[in-house]
Amino acid sequence: QAVTESKCGPCRRCVDVCPAKALTGTLWRPGLPREDLFQPDICEKTQRARMLAATGIDADLCGLCFAVCPYTQRYLRRIERGETL
C-alpha cells in the first residue's frame, strides 16, 4: 500500500540522531522535493567520513535515521512476524 502522507507527527528522532545534522525536520508529503527533507550532500559527506574513520572503507553507509524511526521499526517487526503488508 502506497504511503500518501507523513507518519512522523511530532517525532524528531531521526533529526536528533543524525550526525551530519542533514535532516531538516520538514514532514514528508507527496511531491515534496528531497532537498526540503534533508541535505543529501552533507549527509553523504558525513557518512563517508564516519565510515572511513571507523573502518578504513570509503563508503556512504549510515542508516541511523532508519534505525531509530518508530514507523520503520513497526514495519520491520511486522515482517519478522510474517504478517502480510
List the helices and strands and how they pair.
Elements: H1 13-17, H2 34-37, H3 40-55, H4 64-68, H5 70-80
In short:
With 85 residues, the chain is mainly α.
Structure description:
Helices cover 48% and strands 0% of the residues. It is mostly helical and 85 residues long. The longest helix is centred in the middle third of the chain and has 16 residues. The radius of gyration is 15 Å and the shape is globular. The chain contains 5 helices and no strands.
Which characteristics define this entry?
single chain, 85 residues, 5 helices
Residues in helices, as a percent range: 40-55%
Gross geometry? globular
Mean pLDDT: 93
- Radius of gyration over alpha carbons? 15 Å
Which ranges are low-confidence, i.e. pLDDT below 50, for 5 or more consecutive residues? none
Report, as a whole number of angstroms, the end-to-end distance: 8 Å
Strand and helix order: HHHHH
Q: Which structural class should the secondary elements be placed in?
A: mainly alpha
Strand content: under 5%
Number of helices: 5
Largest sheet: none
Task: Tell me the number of strands.
Answer: 0
